[in-house]
Amino acid sequence: MKIIISGKGGSGKSTISTLIARSLAAHGFNVLLVDADESNFGLQRLLGVDAPVHLMDDFGGKAHFKKNWMGTASEGLFKDHTRISDLPQTCIAQSGDVKLLIIGKVHSHGEGCACPMGVLSKSILAKLDVMENEVVVVDAEAGVEHFGRRVDGECDLVLGVVDPSFESFMLAKKMESMAYAAGCEIFFILNKATPDVLTDMKSHIPADKIIAVIPHNNAVFMDSLKGNRLEKDLPEIDPVCKLIKDRKNRPANRANLFSVKPGK
Q1: Any alpha helices (H) in the chain, and if so which ranges?
Q2: Which end of the chain is less congested by CB atoms within 10 angstroms, N or C?
Q3: Within 13 Å, how many C-alpha atoms sit on residue 21's CB side?
Q4: Residue range 54-73: mean pLDDT, rounded
Q5: Closest Cα partner for 185 from 258, 121, 135?
Q6: pLDDT for position 152
């Protein structure tokens, strides 16, 4: 199963992605955590590992990739039915049963857009075969550009992270609409929720689409602030893992899932 974590910048996507990956590993799954956010450099720190070679660099860097692989040639980047074990081992860092793969990052001023990273993300997710005991968790870039790149169309489930801000509420509506168009089931995780804002947060998201509520946690906040390994486990993430296990055991029939549009 392939799951993409979406949300606005600063909503806590990377923290939630790490918590989900570690919780799934604790439930016995082999997890590949894919860092597909070309602007965020902190995911490996939350896992407590050194960054591996970026997959884009393994292809010779962005300039080489744009020259040789952009366009129709990108279809041949990976063989059909690629397994997680087939990925270059230099591009994998491991923390327990969680493997980390970093697609690529924007490194320097004037190097151009991040489209090659989107092409690379879509290519690997399209060709990657996930076995019974494996789960792929994708920490997407902020916003909805990955919907425009159709990265989400290669995934089975979208999890939107919503923090207490009006921008995040508006983005959630857009994500739900785009997930429907992509043929992906979507649920939302309310993050950084405090008692004084929780009612208002819930008023913006359909109740049947809220899968978890993560309260503000100062220990988690400080680990993220200082760039430390995320040490705290949150039981509030358990409903997300239950949903994922349920979807793995009961594959969704997309023709039935999307017979009603969002908001209807």
Answers
A1: 13-26, 43-47, 55-58, 62-68, 115-127, 145-148, 166-182, 195-203, 218-226, 238-249, 254-257
A2: C
A3: 31
A4: 85
A5: 258
A6: 66
Strand 2-7 to 98-102 pairing: unpaired
Please count the structural domains in the chain.
1
- Model confidence, pTM: 0.89
Q: Determine, yes or no, domain membership for 149.
A: yes
Supply 152's token pair: 């989400």
For residue 106, tell me if it sits in a domain: yes
| 249 CB burial (10 A radius; 0-12, 13-18, 19+) | exposed
CATH number of the structural domain spanning residue 185: 3.40.50.300
Checking if the pLDDT of 235 tops 60, the result is yes
Residue 208 lies inside a defined structural domain of this protein = yes
In degrees and rounded to multiples of 5, residue 145 shows phi and psi of: -60, -30
pLDDT tier at 210, thresholds 50, 70, 90: very high
Q: What is the pLDDT of residue 38?
A: 82
Report in angstroms the alpha-carbon separations of 99 from 131, 137, 162, 224: 15, 10, 26, 20
Domain that holds residue 123: 2-135+142-251
Let me know if residue 34 belongs to a domain.
yes
Rounded percentage of the chain residues whose pLDDT exceeds 70: 90
Helix or strand (DSSP H, E) at 138: strand 134-140
Listed range (32-46, 153-167, 207-221, 222-236) with the worst mean pLDDT:
222-236
Q: What does the alpha-carbon distance between residue 133 and residue 60 come to, in Å, rounded to a whole number?
A: 32
CA dist 161 and 10 (Å) reads 10
pLDDT range class, residue 161, cuts 50, 70, 90 = very high
